[in-house]
Structures are given as structure tokens and as C-alpha cells.
Amino acid sequence: MATKGAGDGAGGVVNRAEAGAHRGGVFQAHRMEITLGRESPDSDLAIARQLPPKPVGFVDRAVELRQMDSVMDRLEPGHQAVIVVTGMVGVGKSALVRHWADANRHRFPGGQLYVDYTDHRYRGDDAVHRVLAALLAHYEVTQPPIGLNECASLFRSLTADRPVLVLVDNAERSAQVRLLVPGAPGSALVVASRYRLGRPALDAARVLRLKPLDEADTAALLLSMLDEDIRSDLAADVAERLAGICAGLPKAVRIVASLLEDPDRWPPGVLAAHLADDGHRLARLAAEDCEIGADLDEVVHTLDADGRRAYALLGALPAAEFSTEAIAKGLEEWVEHARHILHRLCDANLATGAMDRFRLHALVRLHARGLSAAREEADRARDRVEDWYLGAALAAGRALREEHRSRLVWPSGPARRRDWSSPQEAARWYEAERGALLALLVAAERRNDERVLEFCHALWPLQRSRGHHDAAARVQRKAVRAAMNLGDGEEEARAWVRLAFARALAGEAAEARRALVRARGSAESAEDGDAMALVAEGELELEAWLAGDGFIPGPPAPRDGDDPGAVWLPGDAEKVW
Predict the structure, then answer these.
(1) What is the DSSP letter of 21?
(2) Which of 98, 402, 508, 571 is 20 to 30 A from 44, alpha carbon to alpha carbon?
(3) Entry's SUPFAM superfamilies (predicted)?
């Protein structure tokens, strides 16, 4: 402690502490000027060099690095920078900030300090005090102030002379880092977090949301981490499969690379097959203490009950992306509240989305699907989502058919769930939800043949009106199998006739006629009069259509850029099959 002061003490006794370095218990003086810190601020000992080693196998994140550089380049005089890098588990946040910090040491002549909150989780304000105490220890403050704000003030004072970098990893809340901004202009606080920390709460200059790598960069990163002999033995198609399994996460790539280092145990082809199992991929994608599933467990633990319900539901659904309205039906919540819950999942980087659609990353979805504690409730919520999609699809099909009816139009099923202002609005809804509808159909094949038929009925007018002829044929083949499993001759005949029309609309007349032959055979085998009448009506109409007797041709298959609201509606002379 360096002290200077002079003055008259009580009773006229003069107590003086001369300028210089003083150590001891008590000093008496009327006026004292105190400087805390090292005697020589220019000494090398006063400069912190705490950055972890530069990451190995760092893939080029050129855009993000330039964005971080630009924050410093445009920093106004007298200000400090706060940069937050956020992203899902394993996406490479720590590697990015460490790489940038290592390349930018020259910007911070006052030193580089490092904090990892992994060892301070779940401690509240006490964790922040411990972190500040650790930072102050570098400046030989062995007994920091008890108050949190006093600690922060002292830290700013000690870092006020020259620009300092504070690099914080694994922060969870804005409150954990808000008080760690150094005092000197030109300093920077750089934070890596799994959570979307609030920019206003931190007065952050920039928040970067790090996305998973694309397939090419994932494969390049994997190859860069392998020894030459292993890399030379790795077939291109196997490397591509392994990169796809990693789904753009550098942490998963590091795990795969470490497993490949033992080729006797894990030949590349065997490892690719081992990790291809969706049911066990996360458990197998682990090496020592590096485990993506455990990291996701920690994030899910921070969610409230509504967040965990929504997360489990998204994992139970068969497609990566679903609409907010559908999720609201599954959760039995108002749409606005469901959107609020989903936004909280986005804040934890467990989901991505905006207002109307949300999705899970492939590995996150596997994790959510494995939450056995919530599986029963999630399955019930999934059934409610299926009901909503089925009702909405039936309503859209009715809007597209207008008042036309046919023996192939499904007469039963869930009541209409929503009204459409026009056929075009119904067609746009179908195009937006087509992937979800098909995923629900495929998932239903494993559980419920009656539900398969319901989706096949609902999809038929939608696919036909948009010219999705090949997809319609595939769907109707599923209807054939489901009807055969149920022993329902009429439904099997109906599916065969629809398949015939789908093939005819695609220009495959021979395939269409073969489907009609199968339709008649199934109806006769079932000895079902209604099925035989249905097939006979289909044969007459289809043959007339193929002969070109005044029937309007079907719509062409859609191309990229086509208006998703464009629909093809039948003329008065044609029935809707």
C-alpha cells in the first residue's frame, strides 16, 4: 500500500505517513491518499496472461471473427466493449472466443484475464463475488471487500490504466458478468454462453449467435483432427456419414475424431454404423468427460415446468419443425403463452424459431426424445398435435374441393378445426405444413393403421390440387397397406383407385391401369359390394380421362419458385377422386 498524507491529529499531535510503500497494521494521518496495486504498473508482473491455450483444429469462422474485430475497430473513445457469443451446446463458442482472444492480445496491453463459470454454477451472487475475488487476487488484493458492488468498483479501479481483456466462459446469466467490465477505455468483456444473455442488461455492443457448421466445414474439421494414417484410410462416403452424424457441432466432431484414433476398436465403417442408431446416438457420442447429452441435461435442468413440457413434446414429434399453433394445441395452452414458452427454449439455445415456427437441432431432438420421465405426457400431447393437424388438413381439403364431392372423398373423420378464407389460403397452409404432415403419417405407420388412413384421406385433395403426383402415389400405397392390415376391402379399393389417378396425372397410363386391376382384385376378394361399385365408377372416369373425352387435365408438378397458393380446382365435368 502506498500512502501519503499530513495533518494535525487530535490534541495537536502530528501524525505523518510519508510517501512510499508501507506495510503493517495501522497508519494514522489527517489526510491519506491511497493507491492499491503493484508499485510498478509497467512491470511485466502486473500484466495478466491467463488465456487458455489456443484451440486445436479450429475451423474457419471468418464471418464471426470479422464481426468481433469490427466491434473493437468501431469502439468509441472512452468506452469499453462487451461482446457476447451465444449458441447451443457443443457449437464451438469457447473455441471461437479463445481463438479471437489469442489473435487480439495486442489490443490489450493491460493484460488478459480468464474466468470459467463451470465451477461456480448455482451459487447466485456468491459466485460473482468469488469470481471478482479471483480477479482481484492477480492484483495482490488478498482481502477483497465484502460487498459485491465494492468489489466491482475496486476491480474497475485496478484495471483503469490500460486496456484489459476479460474472457468469460460458460456464463448462464447476465448478472454473472455485468460487473466484470474492466475500467480502462478500449477494454473488452467477451462472454461465451449457452444462453441468450440480454443485450440491454449487459449494455452489450454485439451479440453473436453461433450456428452449427455446414456439412463441408464439419467434414473439413473432422479430417483436420485426424492423423495422416487414419485420414488416408477414411473412405469419403464414411467421412460424409460421420460428419452428418455430428450435425455441425464441433464438440461432436472432436468426440468422433477421438474414437477414430483407436481403429482396432472402431474401424470407421463400424463406428459410422454404431452412431447411426438414433435411439442410442447421444449415449454413444461420448468420450471421457466430453458428452453432449450431459451438457444438454444441465441446460434442461434450468427450465421451468412449462419449458420442460414443451421440450419433451418437441422431442416426441416426428419432424424437426412444427407451427406454434400446433404446439399450443399439444400443450393445451393459448397460442401467445405457447409462443412465450417456446421463446424461453430459444433463450436456452434448445430451439430456434421466430413467431410461427420452431425447430430443434437433430441431436437436441434426440435428447428431448429420450426424456423418459416426461414420455407419457409427451405422447398424449403428441396425439393432440396429430388431431389438430388432421382436422386442419381435412378443412383445407374441403376448402380446395369447394362443393365437389365424390365416393373417394372421406365422409367421416374429425370435425373441421379452422376456416379458410379462400382455397389459396388453404394451399399456402398445406405447403408450409407439408413436411410435418408427411412426418406425422410416417410416424403413425408404426402405431396405428386407422390414423394412417385418416392422414391419407386428408392429404389426397391437398396433394392433387398442388400437383404432388409422385408424393400422392407414395401416400396412397401407405393407405393400401394400412387397409390390408385392417382387412377393410372398401378402403383398400379406394386407395388403389386414388393411386391409379395419381399415376395417370403423372403421365403414367400403364401404371394407372395396373393400379385399377389391383383395385378390382381387392374388391372382388373382399366380396364387398360397395368396394366393387367404387372401383367400377373409378374405372369409367379414369378411362374417360385417359381418352381425353373433355376432362380437364391435372395440374403440373410444382417447381421451385411456384406460388404456394396456386391451386388446381376441378371443372364441373370432373369428379374429385
Answers:
(1) B
(2) 98
(3) P-loop containing nucleoside triphosphate hydrolases (SSF52540)
Closest CA to 148 of 172, 134, 129, 162: 129
Contact 425, 479 (CB under 8 A): no
H or E segment and range at residue 432: helix 423-444
Residue-wise burial string across 221-232, b where 16 or more C-beta atoms lie within 10 A, e elsewhere? bbbebbeeebee
Contact, 83 vs 208, CB < 8 A? yes
Q: Give the global pTM.
A: 0.79
Q: Domain spanning 393-547 has what CATH number?
A: 1.25.40
What are 346-385's pLDDT values in tens digits? 999 999 987 788 989 999 999 998 876 667 888 889 899 9
Contacts of 508 (CB under 8 A, 6+ apart): none
Report the topology of domain 303-370. Arc Repressor Mutant, subunit A (1.10.10)
Q: Is the dihedral of CA 114, 120, 124, 125 positive or negative?
A: negative
* Cell numbers found for residue 538: 373409378
89-147 pLDDT, tens digit each: 999 999 999 999 999 999 999 999 999 988 766 555 578 888 999 999 888 888 888 88
Give CA–CA dist 351/88, Å, rounded.
9
- In 318-404, where do the E strands start and end? 321-323, 352-353, 357-359
Tell me how crowded residue 549 is: count the other CB atoms within 10 A of its CB: 9
